[in-house]
Amino acid sequence: MSQSEDAFNTYEKCDFTGGMEVEKQEHKKAPKGAGLSLHALSPERAIALLYVLLALAFVFFMALTIVSLQRVSAVWEALEQAHVHSESSHAAVRYNLSEVQRTLDQQLAGDLKVIQGQLLRVSQEVETVWWNMTRCKAECGEELSDHLSVLAAEKPRLELVLQQLGEVKQEQSRVSALLNTVLEETRNLSAQFQSAALYLSCPTGWQEFGESCYFFSSTAKPWLDAKYDCAKFNARLVIIDTEEENRFLASRITDNHVFWLGLSDVEDEGNWQWVDRRSPSFVSWNNGEPNNAGYNGEDCAIIYSSGHWNDIACSSNEAWICERRSSSY
User: Fold this and answer.
1) Regarding predicted confidence, which is higher, 88 or 244?
2) Per the omega criterion (within 30 degrees of 0), is the bond before 203 cis?
């Protein structure tokens, strides 16, 4: 409910309440049993009462008019606001539609230009191809016919050449097989020559394995003396690099015999080195060895018939193995 309607209802309540109060006072003033009537009033009081009623009616009419005008004004203002809002909305919609239409027109124009350019290019290419096909139809036909005639004339010659090529290919295969046979025989002869050279390169009393010759002594000496003895033969105490070499040496040792190896840690305890100062790349120590037992320690290595190694005192008298490369003979 609007403010004008609230004011109008409040005015009606006040007017009704005022009328009731006036009527009660008149009843109080009137004698008991007497009724209120215009005929009982004097003319002056009747006129005054009439003026009062007219004034009240005028005031009521004016209040009703004011309320109505306020309601009409509020409705008109609302209509004006709605009209303004509607106009602004319509203007915004028209502007957005015009922008969308302008954007679409620009995009459509650009797309149409691109499509027109592509169609024009395709049309030109089709026209060029058609023209080339039309021009080549006669020229290429004649040229192709000439080539076919030449090929037909050259066909017997080509067949002869192909036949000769087949014969050459067969001959090449036969020669290749012969070459492979010769190469294989050459390899076998080379291997035999190398074996014979190795066999001949090892002196009497030395045993050949791989590219080395080995000498197993029949006497016993301390490790250092054995080292010097090998040097007399342009050799050294044996150095074992592989498991295969270790097995070969062990297979030449009888039971209850041991031989010195060219391995020791005399210069640096625990740092075992071969006589050429290389660290071992292969070892075959016995269980718990090397243990450097004894008061003076154990600094030189020996090999058993089992292929296992052990460290003992370098002053012990043992047999030894000398090694030298076969290429040094």
Assistant:
1) 244
2) no
